[in-house]
Every structure is written in structure tokens, then in C-alpha cells.
Design brief:
alpha/beta, Dihydrofolate Reductase, subunit A, 5 helices, 8 strands, globular
């Protein structure tokens, strides 16, 4: 399977608390949650629904897994009008969680990856199939990139600057070159950019 990521971020790179509830994630005094709600147009909504439908399996960090389990895993399709394909995919496909502390996941179809994560993910990627998808899970995505395990990443960039919140990429970290595979902008100014990691960047010499 190809390991792909899809992340909603702001112009200043924040990914924290993008969901529908303003109090979804209040870590470190974050007060500007729900910033992605209603921002994309119908084409962007369709793109997100279609992306989830492509997944053969999902991989999460623990925090995102618990958020998803509490929303997508416990409601009904009537609770998520317009996002039924996302709910169906998440509940029907295998789910893997990178965690050393989660012992008894309640969401059906969940497997906890607690030991030798790099080997476990490499084994998943070696299985036949389409996509092993990562949504949210910023800490996990950074670790996957550092370990050269990401095949493709999609950034959905919402035109807002928050000025606070956890960012997808840290202030200091490993560098990475990216090849642009696809780019589009919707009628509300939301851009979708699909990249493939391409090794380290080349820098100008003195």
C-alpha cells in the first residue's frame, strides 16, 4: 500500500483544532478552534469524500484516533450530512493506531501498533492494496517523514492566519524537498496541493 497523508492547515501552518467544535482541542491555551468549518466549496468537499473512499486502511496517532472514534465512530450518518462517505470508510476499513499506551480500543476494526513502529508500518506498506491513509496526527506525520515512510502528502490550505496553535512542521527539524503532483484552488480560496517527497533540498553554494 502507498502511505498517504491529508492535512488541513492554515496559511501559517497551524493544524490544531480544525474541526467543527471550537473546543475540540484546547491544548496549550488554544482558543481558535473550528477554523476550517464551512471554508471549502462543494468541489473540495467531494475531493475529501473521494479521498477517504480510496483508503484501504487508516493509520492514526493516538490523539487523532480518539477524536475520530468519538465523532465518526460513535454517531450515525444522519449526524454528518454531506460526509457520509467519510463515516462509511472509517467504520468499514481497518484502522491502525501508533500508541504505546492505548490498550483496549473500543472502535471496531482497530489494531494498536505499540512495538517497533517502523517495521510495523513497513509491513503494512508491503501489503497489496491502494492507500494507507493518515489524517490529522501531526506528531505521527512528522515522524513518518523523518523516517522516509510517506509516499504522498496532501495539504488542504485554508486562507486564514491564526497566530497560535500547533503547526504541522516544527520551527526546527529535518529538511525535505517536495515534487508537486497536483494543485487546485476552489471558489472559496481553499487550495489543495498534493506532493511527493523528493529527498533533501538543494541549496545554493556560497
Amino acid at each position: 500500500m502507498k502511505l498517504t497523508t491529508m492535512t488541513q492547515v492554515t496559511i501559517d501552518g497551524v493544524m490544531q483544532g480544525n474541526g467543527g467544535a471550537s473546543d475540540e482541542d484546547r491544548r496549550n491555551g488554544f482558543e481558535r478552534g473550528g477554523w476550517a468549518l464551512g471554508k471549502g466549496d462543494n468541489e473540495t468537499h467531494a475531493f475529501i469524500n473521494q479521498t477517504y473512499q480510496r483508503a484501504d486502511a487508516f493509520l492514526f496517532g493516538r490523539r487523532t484516533y480518539e477524536l475520530f472514534a468519538g465523532s465518526w465512530g460513535s454517531g450515525t450518518e444522519q449526524d454528518v450530512p454531506g460526509w457520509e462517505p467519510v463515516m462509511r470508510a472509517l467504520n468499514a476499513r481497518p484502522k491502525y493506531v501508533a500508541s504505546t499506551t492505548l490498550a483496549d480500543p473500543a472502535w471496531s476494526g482497530t489494531t494498536v501498533l505499540s512495538d517497533d513502529l517502523a517495521t510495523a508500518i513497513a509491513d503494512l506498506k508491503a501489503k497489496p492494496g491502494g492507500e494507507l491513509q493518515v489524517h490529522g496526527s501531526g506528531t505521527l506525520i512528522r515522524w513518518l517523514l523523518e523516517n522516509d515512510l510517506v509516499d504522498e502528502m496532501t495539504l488542504i490550505v485554508v486562507p486564514v492566519v491564526l497566530g497560535q496553535g500547533a503547526r504541522l512542521f516544527p520551527d526546527a527539524g529535518p529538511d525535505l524537498a517536495l515534487d508537486l503532483v497536483e494543485s487546485r484552488v476552489d471558489s472559496k480560496g481553499v487550495t489543495i496541493q498534493v506532493y511527493r517527497p523528493a529527498g533533501r533540498p538543494q541549496y545554493a553554494t556560497a
